[in-house]
Amino acid sequence: LLGVAYENGDGVGQDHKKAAEYFQESADQGDGHAMHNLAVMYHNGQGVEQNYKEAARYFQASADKGDPRATLKLADMHRRGAGFDKDFSEATRCAQEAADRGDVDCQLFLARAYGSGEGAKQDNKKAALWTQKAADQGNASAQLSLADMYYDGVGVDQNRKEAARWCRKAADQGHPDAQFHLGVLYLNGDGVPRDKKKAVMWIRTSADQGHPNAQHALGTYFSQGAPAAAPPQKPPSP
């Protein structure tokens, strides 16, 4: 607790060096969370000299105690070659362990690996499978990515209604990209009945969150009387 307090400046003056010292004490006693926090400090060079190998050592120790955050960080370090030789297949293996236990971030890591072919043989069906698992747990970015897969028929049978359904789930969680794409679907009657009012409502909601394409569409609406009808752009990877 003292380590976190000094790290965040919560009730005491922020002091990364003291935070690292307290994390080290707890890590030496086998505390997995402290191991993770100490690894982060070595990784970022906060309170200690930056040392990727030490970061990797403590992330591994934390992962061995079941912390999925550490597992994901290890996977990323293997992918980047930070503290290890660059090894995409080892990155995927690390992520697989936590993904199988239901960790959403690691599920998305695997979805990207299978989708891009980095760290695994490219397999759009497996990419869709892991995206689905993360989406089923309510991750809005995964839901939008799954919508995109259904829209284009990547890894799943093309189904515009399913695309709209998953897009709506992400939009309901406040995801501005999903809100914009859902508005365009309503505008074009693509996977949902054409509905200008709903289209404008969702595009406006997205624009209010600063989405540039939604703002442009609204500008077109106010200047020409109707938002520009265009197919949804591919959402970014989660």
Order of helices and strands: HHHHHHHHHHHHH
Mean pLDDT, as a whole number?
Answer: 89
Could you tell me the strand content as a percent range? under 5%
**Helical residues, percent:** 55-70%
Query: What Rg do the Cα atoms give?
Result: 22 Å
Number of helices: 13
Describe the fold and architecture.
By secondary structure, this protein is mainly α. The protein has 13 helices and no strands. Helices cover 68% and strands 0% of the residues.
Features:
238 residues; mainly alpha
Give me the secondary-structure topology:
Elements: H1 2-8, H2 16-28, H3 32-44, H4 52-64, H5 68-80, H6 88-100, H7 104-116, H8 124-136, H9 140-152, H10 160-172, H11 176-188, H12 196-208, H13 212-224
Helix pairs in contact: 1-2, 2-3, 3-4, 4-5, 5-6, 6-7, 7-8, 8-9, 9-10, 10-11, 11-12, 12-13
Quick recap of the structure?
The protein has 238 residues and is mostly helical.
